[in-house]
Amino acid sequence: MPETQPKVRFAHFRFDPSRDLLGEGPLSEVYRAEDEKLKRTVALKILRAHVDLDPEADERFEREARHTSNLVHPNIATIYEYGEDSGRRYIAMEYLQGRTLDKIIKDGQLGLEESLRIAVQLTSALALVHKSGLIHRDLKPANVMVLHDGTIKLLDFGIARASGESTITQHGMLVGTVLYMSPEQVRGDELDARSDIFSLGAMLYHALCGQLPFPGNSFPEVCMAILDAKPKALSKARTGIPQALEDFVMKCMAASAAERYPNAEIAHGVLMAIADGLAPSRASERQNYLSGHLVLPPIRSDSAHTGFAADLRKDIAAELSRAGMNTTLLSDQNVPSDLRVDFTLRGDVAVDGFKGRLALVLEHYKSQDLTQTREVWRDSVEHLDTDEWSIQAGLVRSAVRQLRRQLAEHALRPEEPRTRDPEGARQHSLRGHEVLHRGMTKHLLASISLFRRAMELDGRCALALAGISEALVRKYLYWDGDESFLSESREFARKALALDAGCAEAHTSLGFGYHLTGLMVDAQREYRLAIQLNQNEWLAHRLLGAALSREGNFKAASPLLQRAIALKPSYISSYDHLHQVLQRLDRYQEAIETADRGIGAARKQLQRVPDDQDTRLHLAMLLARMGLREEALGELSRAHHYGPKDGFTSFHTASVHAVLGNPAEALEALATAQLRGYFIRSEQRNSEFDFLRGLPEFDKLIK
User: Fold this and answer.
1) Is residue 143 domain-resident?
2) Quick one: 258 and 126 in the same domain?
C-alpha cells in the first residue's frame, strides 16, 4: 500500500496536503482540515504565498471573510474564523459535502423540480445578501454548492461589494465570470442588485436547458453576445418549460436593468409563487385536478346487460366527480340545449363470458353552442375475470385512468376563444373589485359574477383571478370560517401569478387569507411583495398598515395608511385606521383632521353609491370616535335599512356600539352577525371589543 503522507499543521488545523485537497485556484487552496481547538471538520481556505501577481488578493480575501461572516442564512456557507499564520491568511468555513452546480449541469440539464428547488433556495440566500447592502458580483454555478440532502449553499464572496466600498479591479480586467455577467458589468459601469439578478437569470437558464444564454468561442465574443442581450427563448432551447418560469428567467436577463426585478427579495417572492403554482396541491394529491362539466348519456348494451351498463355509468361518473369533474347523468342520448356542457362521454359495453369490453367516445364542445363539437378521443378498454362485479370494477378503473389523462390535458390546454377582449376583461375586473369592497354579501356575490365574466372575455386575465381569490377570502369570513374557501382562494391566487408573475393583487389576496387566520409573518410578507411589485396597490398598503398598527408599530403603519388614502380616497376604512394610529403617536390634531377628511369623503361616496355599506359603517365609526353619537346611530339605522339581514352589517354595527360604550347592543349585534354566518372569531383580537372581554356572553361567542 502507498505510504500516507503525514498531516501538516497550519495554525491550529491539521490536514493531509494530498488527500485533503478539495480545490484550488490561482490565489488560494482549499483543504478539508481538523480544527484542533473546537474538534470539528472545516473547509480551510489558504491564500497562496505568492500573491504579488495580484496585489489586491489580500483585500478580496479579507472582504470574503468580513462579508460572509455577517450573513447568517441556511443557504449561505458559514464562516467560522479568519486569521493569519506565518504570513499566510486563511479562512475556516463550514465543511460542505456535495457537488457544485457547474459539475451537475455538465452531467446534463436539470429536471424542472430540481431547478426550481435550487432557484428558490438561491434567491432566498441572495435576498439576504441584497438586504444587507451587498452585491455578490460573481454569481455562477461554480459558486453554488448542492449538498447531498438537496440543500444549496452560496459560496465565494471574495469580490462582493458593499455600498460605499471602492470597486475592486484586477489590473484593468473584469472581475467575475464573464459567462454570467450583466451588460453593465461587462461595460464596467456602477453596479447594483439588478446585476446579480441578471447573473441569476443566466444561471437558471443554463441549469434549465443545459445551454449558455450567451455562448461564444472567445472572451470578446461572449462579451458582445451579452451586450447584445438577445438570448434564445428558453422554450426554444428546451421544450416543456412553463410559461411563467420562462417569463421569470427572461425578465431577469433583460438588457435594461430597469426592466429586471429590483432585488432578490422580489425575485424570490415571484419564484415562490411560480413554484407553488406548478407544484401539485393537496387537491391534486387527491387527484382533484379536473375541471368542467361532463354529461354521460346511457351506456348502450344488449338487453341482458342494461343493469350492468347503468351501474358502470354511475361508477365512472362517481370516480370522475371525485377527481373534480362536474358530472351529469342524462336520461337519453340527447344533450339538453339549455345545459352548459364542456364534454360528453358516450359508451357501448359488451360482456361475453369472462370478458368485458367498453368502447368510449369523448366529445368536447368548443362553445356553449352544442352543435359545435368535436371528437377528441375514442378508445376501448377490456377486462377479464370470472366475476361480473370484478369485470365492472376493472372496466371502471381502466376507463377512468385514461379519461383523467384526456380530460386533464384539455383542462390544462384549453382552446383559446376566437376573440379575446383583454380590455373588457380588465374593466369587468376593476368593476368587480369596486363592488366587492362595498361590503355586503350581495356585493360579494355580484363581484364574483363580474370576475367570472371577465374570465369569459379573457381567460388569461390575472386581475380577475386575483379578484376571485380575494372574494373567496371574504367568503371564508362571511360563511362561518369554512377553510375550504381559503384553500380555493390560494389556488386562484397562484393561477393568477402563474399567468402574471407581477400581479400584485394576487399577493394581497394571499396575504389577506393569512391575515384572517393569524399567520401575520406570512401575511406581511405577501403585502410587502405586493407593494414592491406595484406601489399603487392601495389595499396592500391599507392591510399592512392595519397589521402593523395592531402590533404596535404605529410609526411604520402611519405612512402606509396615508399612502392608502392617497391612492383610494373613497375607501373610508383607511381613514379610521389612520385616525387611531395618529392618536397613538400623540399627533392629535392630525388625527382630528384625518377623521374630518374621512367623514367628508364618506358622505361624498354615499351620495354616489348609497348602498356602499363598508363606507356607511366606517362613517358611523368615525362619527362615534369623534363623539357625534346621534349622527353615528343615524348611520347605523340607515345601514340596517340597506342590509337588514346581512352578517357584515351586523358585525360592524357591533363595533360601532362598542366604541359608543353600548355593551348590550354590541353583544346583540355580534350574536346576530354570528347567526348570519359572519366568522367573528377571526376578529377576536379587535381592540374595540376589549371592554366586552370577560363577559360570559362575549366569551361564548368567540370560542
Assistant:
1) yes
2) yes
